[in-house]
Amino acid sequence: MLSSQQTIELFQRYVIGNYTRYPVCLVRGQGSYVWDAEGNRYLDFFPGWGCALLGHCPPRVVKAVQEQVAQLIHVPNTWYIEAQGLLAQALSERTGWGGQCFFCNSGAEAVEAAIKLARLNGKPHRRYKIISMLNSFHGRTMGALSATGQPKYHHGLEPLLAGFTYVPFGDLEAVANAMDDETCAILVEPIQGEGGVNLPPDGYLQGLRQLADQNQALLIFDEVQTGMGRTGRWFAHQLWSVKPDVMTLAKALAGGIACGGIVARPDVAEKLKPGTHAATFGGNPIACRAALAAIETIEADGLLERGRAIGQRFQERLESLRAQCPLIQQIRVQGTMIGVELSIEGTAIVNECLKRGLLINCTQGTVLRFLPALTLTDEELAQGCAILEEVLSTYQP
Ligand SMILES: Cc1ncc(COP(=O)(O)O)c(C=O)c1O
Q1: Which of 210, 212, 233, 281 is at 20 to 30 A from 372, Cα to Cα?
Q2: Which distant-in-sequence residues (6+ apart) come within 8 Å of 355 by Cβ?
Q3: What CATH number has the domain spanning 60-300?
Q4: Of the residues 104, 135, 138, which should be mutated to test ligand 1's pocket, given the most ligand atoms within 8 Å of the CB?
Q5: What pLDDT, in 10s, does the model give residues 30-56?
């Protein structure tokens, strides 16, 4: 096996440098731990950038993929695929509002499908504009990027897709003011993830539902990060009992295997007719079997409840840390979606944690973000928090 340094050299020569990478090559993962090429072990509070919600290499997902890969790797969507049908049923039943699914491979693709569906739905009424939120993140393809309300990601790539208006997250009046008779949809993350783990104010999602209904616009929830059990419910919108017309999913959908999708109200979904949209690998047998195994794992192992308990423990532990650490401005927790707002830049803290064997993320410059696995044990939680405490204690304002 190559050393980390040898792999880094390959990257320097042959891989486009569009990512900032840590100087470590990871080679193995199990549960909440990963190992590098030198055999060093790290405790992972940010497994798979939100994709490894069940931890690394969850056993049922591994088995399902192994079995499927030996049976049938890929067939296109010109054929019926049993696993895709079963996955669509499983998702639809868990939404509780009877949606129908389209499958793709990533979050950005799911958002693209939702944008197309919103436009197709609005077309007969000459509606094409979409309202999305400042600080949102919807992906890097040109449509999803245009939906993303963060100018820093747009620089150099303009002109963007026409028709997007950005308003502050949490501000219903701003949405009402931005609505006009060309608006076809409101697009929002129920909890902003990359934007800093921002929770919606009371009544916000209900208010968006009303505004969408009053103005014949669709309500699209981007649940790429919040979906599949991340917030302690299958989907974050269930926390506030607000139903979307369209929901996007990806990240944790298939236990770490690439898979994205949308779930849409049937009378809206029917606008995606043959020829309007497609994805060659979308809904392939491997991804769908992995997703079915992920859903089975969450239910068989009671992981929605466990996620709520993990969130509660983080909240308690971080609150007591806050009492001693004036750098911590705010703690925002919903299930295993955790943000710690600091008064200083967080990058150095992430790097210090890495040196001590703990993997965390920093977003928006000052928000430490953890998206731990639902399988994280209490001991692992305590161990990681102790490292964080040690690191933060060295940074006094
Ligand atoms: C809410 C949300 N939507 C969309 C995306 C884009 O997903 P992907 O990177 O799989 O394209 C992300 C990625 O972080 C996300 O958090």
Answers
A1: 281
A2: none
A3: 3.40.640.10
A4: 138
A5: 999 999 999 999 999 999 999 999 999
